[in-house]
Design goal:
Blueprint lengths: L1 H26 L12 E3 L5 E4 L15 E2 L8 E7 L9 E3 L2 E5 L4 E6 L5 E6 L9 E3 L2 E5 L4 E6 L5 E6 L9 E4 L6 E6 L4 E6 L5 E6 L9 E3 L2 E5 L4 E6 L5 E6 L9 E3 L2 E5 L5 E5 L5 E5 L11 E2 L3 E6 L3 E6 L5 E6 L9 E3 L2 E5 L4 E6 L5 E6 L9 E3 L2 E5 L4 E6 L1
Parallel strand pairs: 3-29
Antiparallel strand pairs: 1-2, 4-35, 5-6, 6-7, 7-8, 9-10, 10-11, 11-12, 13-14, 14-15, 15-16, 17-18, 18-19, 19-20, 21-22, 22-23, 23-24, 25-26, 26-27, 27-28, 29-30, 30-31, 31-32, 33-34, 34-35
């Protein structure tokens, strides 16, 4: 009996030990594992404007605010890098554990976010500097060959393509149709037009003509499409039918995209001015002229702060209400990359070959990583990771 009791006690002790080991193992997660549960915010018109573990288009959502709920570690390291055969001006987007990005080698790539392995690629007939827009299972992306491509998100298979009269360098955006049944894709072209296409078949719903190239991405908010043109105007267009609502004179050529927040548009121009304009009235509410160089970077905006890069080798942060300067951060090269705001952190690339993380509160440097070649690609942030392209032809993923 004593011997049997000892055996039983040993078995019980072994079971307890095994249970403790299994609990330990099950509680351990890879340090860059992606949380599959997305946090979704919905606008009144039904647009997805921000999901915590997704960055599905240029600057994260239809308003182009470049602002995410993600919190980043103050020290990041390279988790993986993926090689293309050309420099990368395109900015990455992230959806369902995949990274989508274009390259000057004329390809669109889908990359596994977890390990950096190629999932598929699609060849176009021109350099792909545009950023993808991923919605409803499709990847919509423009090329310098003048086509907008609709690709299957999982396989990279071509669904349709639409030819404009000029190269497409800006990201597409999306909105629901008036009947809420269809998704429509909005994209600008160097043929001086903004197009609205049916996402299912690529047929034109409407087009809007400007007086010069449309280089940047159009923002969408409250049934209005807002974008800057190389004609020096901020155009406000009805999303329903493409009718012009108003034009706001920005004073000079606009290369980047406007961010929309609180009924206002924030955008920089080629004559060294950054402006805030009221979309409804068309009035310029303030103008910041704290630089002697132009702005190509598109701004990131919160309720209280707007952050953007300049060709004066600086990152600028202003108060949204007044336009007063909060801080500037000195770099060693032009900042054409568009920043992402992540809590109290700002992440942005630079022509000096570095990816920077600075404090939103005071502009102090938190972290930087020197890749060595220019970064004009804009970072995407999802699941605690930062992904960005570089002129060295690589896509880099950073994490804690």
């Amino acid at each position: 009996m004593k011997y049997a009791s000892k055996i039983i006690l040993l078995v019980i002790a072994f079971v307890i030990l095994l249970a403790m080991i299994l609990v330990k193992i099950s509680s351990h997660k890879p340090r860059h594992e992606i949380n599959k549960e997305a946090v979704v915010d919905i606008q009144r018109e039904g647009l997805i404007i921000g999901r915590k573990n997704v960055w599905s288009m240029f600057h994260g959502g239809p308003k182009l605010q470049g602002h995410t709920q993600n919190v980043l570690s103050d020290s990041l390291t390279v988790l993986w890098k993926f090689k293309t055969n050309g420099d990368i001006k395109s900015s990455p987007v992230i959806e369902e554990g995949l990274v989508f990005i274009g390259s000057s080698d004329a390809n669109v790539y889908a990359i596994d976010l977890e390990n950096g392995n190629q999932v598929w690629s699609y060849k176009t007939a021109g350099a792909v500097e545009a950023t993808a827009c991923v919605v409803d299972g499709s990847v919509f992306i423009g090329s310098a060959d003048s086509f907008l491509y609709a690709l299957d998100m999982k396989t990279g298979g071509l669904k349709w393509k639409y030819e404009t009269g000029g190269k497409i360098l800006g990201s597409a955006n999306w909105i629901r149709s008036d009947n809420e049944q269809d998704i429509q894709i909005v994209v600008g072209s160097y043929d001086s037009q903004l197009y609205c296409l049916n996402s299912k078949d690529g047929k034109v719903v409407w087009s809007y003509k400007t007086d010069s190239y449309v280089n940047g991405t159009a923002a969408i908010s409250d049934g209005r499409i807002v974008f800057g043109g190389c004609d020096g105007m901020i155009h406000v267009v009805s999303a329903k039918d493409g009718a012009g609502v108003r034009q706001i004179d920005a004073g000079a050529y606009i290369a980047g995209a406007a961010a929309v927040s609180g009924g206002n548009a924030y955008v920089g121009n080629y004559e060294n001015a950054f402006i805030k304009a009221d979309i409804k009235s068309g009035k310029i509410l303030w103008k910041y002229t704290g630089s002697d160089e132009p702005y190509f970077s598109s701004p990131a905006v919160t309720d209280e702060r707007v952050v953007f890069g300049g060709r004066d080798n600086r990152i600028h942060c202003l108060e949204t209400d007044s336009g007063n300067e909060v801080w500037t951060f000195q770099t060693l090269g032009d900042v054409d990359s568009s920043p992402a705001i992540c809590g109290d952190r700002v992440v942005v690339g630079c022509e000096d070959g570095r990816l920077y993380m600075v404090s939103l509160s005071d502009g102090s440097k938190v972290w930087s990583f020197e890749i060595g070649q220019a970064i004009s690609s804009s970072p995407a942030v999802a699941g605690g990771l930062v992904v960005v392209g570089c002129d060295d032809g690589y896509v880099y993923a950073f994490g804690p």
